[in-house]
């Protein structure tokens, strides 16, 4: 069921009344005999707006100083009448002058009023982002001035701006805040508007039961029959969305005879016939077309949006050609009204109803427009969050300064003394930490140097033991080309190359990112000779993302060292690695069926000592069970 045009109507109903009441300037002022005052009085006596504006501008020129209290009243009148004439840039200009006047004279209420008037001008321009910015400033300064009623009213307007910008959760927060400020107010119109806006946001968030509850709350406060009928119409629409058609039709039947204005009557009847169609596909086309024609005669463009939408819906299955006709009219009208949400709805129909070529064009426009709406909503949420954070911090600072008493100043002095003591202790603590840090850094540096030397020695030994003799043999063969077997020599060179690459891989920095698990698996698989069977248990169940970078490096190097020892010394045919984790530790159990080691042999080996040192640096533990001729087993615990 169509939502947006109907919701816009309820906004218009309430906000139109609020604007009329609030925008009238307060001209109460002590009588004066100067020319500026006489021109102001003369402007109040004429009905011609152009003449009013000329007289007010002349009065402003007669004021000798910008701090004259009469300036604020003249600014306020100029803003009001420029808004009436829709000369909005001038209205914004004088709103800024009113704000500056308040800043110069330290009059917080005038600052608040200036921001409020400025927000009203931007509202006429439909610039809701600037409505939000300036309404927030107005609310803030009304609170600073102790005017909770005006602050609450601005909270409502802030909430409505957020709704129009698509920030529905933020709108609800602002509405609840406005309720807290106005709960003791006798102003029923604002209370009705707050509950109405809450109902709108819940409806947009598809929480229809909450929307019904808030519309019923709004009904308790509405002051006119016309407003009551509009709220009841929206309630009927929600019941129709809930597919409670009989309840919806009963509500609409009760309000149609009470409608006083043609636009309202057409709106209620249009919803009534459309709900009849939703209930049982009743033949209501002629009735809906008659209402559409009446709206067309009355130039009710907002009402036409609903008419076209309903006509598309009833024709789209049985008469797609008619549905396409009304979808085009729907799109044209939405563009005239700059109603982006209705443009998106109309484009959706056009995509589904148009011929393939046109459908593709409409689809691209639909995607672009829909994406821009979603992007704008995200930007608004971020914008308001930042404004809110910055201003709350400023308000807290201002409040602290304004409420500071002699006792608080004394407490500040005591606090400074405590702070000085804390700073002294902090310096001592930092000095101690620096000394400890330097000591640990130096120790770590020495360990790194030792590790580098050990790595260099290991590489040198490996090159000497595994490569040097083979290189020498190949060189010897090449010196005797007559006896050279090319294929054998090439195989030897390839073997030398592969072993050289393996040495390089073993000593390059380890990647510890998303490919770590795959790299570790490859290393283990490639480290096992062809005659050895490797069994990995629980390897894929480990949450490697929980393991720190340092721990990943240690696990890799430790397992690499164990595999090297296995190849060199154990003569094993089976190697098993079991991986297991709990909430705080990773446990790795190594077993092979090789020849094992005696305790004496283990003490002589530098490799396993390096393993133990690596694990201890990250707070882990390494336990092995030396026993000759019974295989080798070890247990490694690594903290997360």
TrEMBL record:
Catalytic reaction list: ATP + protein L-histidine = ADP + protein N-phospho-L-histidine
Transmembrane segments: 419-440
Gene Ontology terms, MF aspect: protein histidine kinase activity
GO BP terms: phosphorelay signal transduction system
Alphabetized UniProt keyword annotations: Kinase, Membrane, TPR repeat, Transferase, Transmembrane, Transmembrane helix, Two-component regulatory system
Histidine kinase domain location: 555-640
Top EC category: transferase
Keyword Transit peptide recorded: no
TPR repeats: 192-225
EC number(s) given by UniProt: 2.7.13.3
Pfam families assigned: TPR_12
InterPro entries xrefs: HATPase_C_sf (IPR036890), His_kinase_dom (IPR005467), Sensor_HK_TwoCompSys (IPR050482), TPR-like_helical_dom_sf (IPR011990), TPR_rpt (IPR019734)
Alphabetical list of PANTHER family matching this protein: NITRATE/NITRITE SENSOR PROTEIN NARX-RELATED (PTHR24421), NITRATE_NITRITE SENSOR PROTEIN NARQ (PTHR24421:SF10)
Protein name as it appears in the record: histidine kinase
Organism whose genome encodes this protein: Salinimicrobium marinum
């Amino acid at each position: 069921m169509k939502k947006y045009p109907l919701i816009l109507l309820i906004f218009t109903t309430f906000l139109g009344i609020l604007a009329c009441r609030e925008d009238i300037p307060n001209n109460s002022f002590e009588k004066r005999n100067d020319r500026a005052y006489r021109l102001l009085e003369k402007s109040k006596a004429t009905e011609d707006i152009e003449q009013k504006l000329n007289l007010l501008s002349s009065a402003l020129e007669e004021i000798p100083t910008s701090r004259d209290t009469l300036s604020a009243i003249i600014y306020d009148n100029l803003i009001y009448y420029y808004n009436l004439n829709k000369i909005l840039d001038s209205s914004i200009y004088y709103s800024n002058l009113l704000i500056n006047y308040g800043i110069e004279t330290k009059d917080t209420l005038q600052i608040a009023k200036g921001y409020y008037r400025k927000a009203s001008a931007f509202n006429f321009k439909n610039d809701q982002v600037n409505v939000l910015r300036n309404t927030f400033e107005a609310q803030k300064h009304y609170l600073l001035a102790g005017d909770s009623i005006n602050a609450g009213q601005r909270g409502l307007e802030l909430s409505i701006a957020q709704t129009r910008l698509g920030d529905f959760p933020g709108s609800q927060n602002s509405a609840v805040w406005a309720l807290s400020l106005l709960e003791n107010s006798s102003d029923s119109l604002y209370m009705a508007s707050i509950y109405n806006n809450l109902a709108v946001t819940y409806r947009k968030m598809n929480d229809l039961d909450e929307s019904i509850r808030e519309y019923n709350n709004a009904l308790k406060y509405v002051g006119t029959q016309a407003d009551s009928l509009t709220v009841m119409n929206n309630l009927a629409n929600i019941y129709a969305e809930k597919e409670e058609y009989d309840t919806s039709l009963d509500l609409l039947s009760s309000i149609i005879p009470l409608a006083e204005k043609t636009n309202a009557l057409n709106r209620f009847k249009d919803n009534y016939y459309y709900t009849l169609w939703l209930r049982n596909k009743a033949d209501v086309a002629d009735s809906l077309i008659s209402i559409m024609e009446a709206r067309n005669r009355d130039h009710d463009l907002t009402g036409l949006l609903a008419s076209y939408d309903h006509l598309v819906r009833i024709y789209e299955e049985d008469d797609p050609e008619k549905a396409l006709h009304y979808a085009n009219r729907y799109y044209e009208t939405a563009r005239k009204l700059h109603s982006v949400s209705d443009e998106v709805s109309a484009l959706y129909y056009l995509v589904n109803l148009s011929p393939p070529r046109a459908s593709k064009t409409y689809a691209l426009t639909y995607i672009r427009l829909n994406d821009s709406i979603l992007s704008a909503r995200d930007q608004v949420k971020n914008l308001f969050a930042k404004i809110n954070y910055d201003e709350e911090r400023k308000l807290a600072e201002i409040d602290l300064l304004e409420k500071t008493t002699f006792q608080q100043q004394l407490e500040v002095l005591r606090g400074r003394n405590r702070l000085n003591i804390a700073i002294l202790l902090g310096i001592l603590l930092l000095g101690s930490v620096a000394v400890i840090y330097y000591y640990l850094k130096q120790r770590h540096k020495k360990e790194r140097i030792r590790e580098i030397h050990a790595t260099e020695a290991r590489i040198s030994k490996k090159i000497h033991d595994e490569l040097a003799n083979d290189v020498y043999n190949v060189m010897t063969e090449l010196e005797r080309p007559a006896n050279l077997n090319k294929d054998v020599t090439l195989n030897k060179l390839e073997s030398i190359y592969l072993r050289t690459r393996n040495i390089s891989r073993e000593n390059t920095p380890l990647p510890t990112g998303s490919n770590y698990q795959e790299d570790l698996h490859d290393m283990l698989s490639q480290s096992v000779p062809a005659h050895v069977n490797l069994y990995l248990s629980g390897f894929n169940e480990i949450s490697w993302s929980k393991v720190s970078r340092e721990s990943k490096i240690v696990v890799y190097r430790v397992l690499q060292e164990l595999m090297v020892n296995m190849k060199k010394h154990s003569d094993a045919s089976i190697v098993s690695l079991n991986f297991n984790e709990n909430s705080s530790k990773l446990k790795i159990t190594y077993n092979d069926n090789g020849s094992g080691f005696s305790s004496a042999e283990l003490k002589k080996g530098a490799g396993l000592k390096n393993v133990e040192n690596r694990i201890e640096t990250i707070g882990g533990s390494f336990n092995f069970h030396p026993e000759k001729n019974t295989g080798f087993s070890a247990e490694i615990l690594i903290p997360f």
